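One chain shown below:
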Amino acid sequence: MRISSPRPRSIDSEAGVLPLINIVFLLLIFFMLAGQLSASDPLAVEPPESLSESLPKDQTLTLFISEDGQMVIEDTEVALEQLEEEISARLSRKVAADLEVKADNSLDSARLVQVMSRLRQAGVEQVTLLTNSRR
């Protein structure tokens, strides 16, 4: 009886894996560069333009107001009647008493004044109206 010796491994078997590894790394790099790095806004809002160069602070609470007056704070929809209570509760949990408002460019100014009045009643010390830069 004759027992054959095992076949030696081919050196080319590792060379066939290298193009696959290259493709995987290229796909990884593509998705890292093409992926979205920041969270999107909960409402579709087009803020007004501004000539100011100042940037918003890192902190705070952001109130989104859409064209039809719908308001969202940190992914929670809020009615105008509940705004004062909701803002007071959220600001009491945070250190800062500042608030950013990102309102749509076509929002009725009377509605914005109502919202600002409610914010002042809630104890908000400073409101920053976010705008787009006009460059």
User: Anything to note?
Assistant: The mean pLDDT is 81. Strands lie at 49-50, 61-65, 71-73, 76-78, 98-103, 126-129, 132-133. The CA atoms of residues 6 and 13 lie 16 Å apart. The longest strand covers residues 98-103.
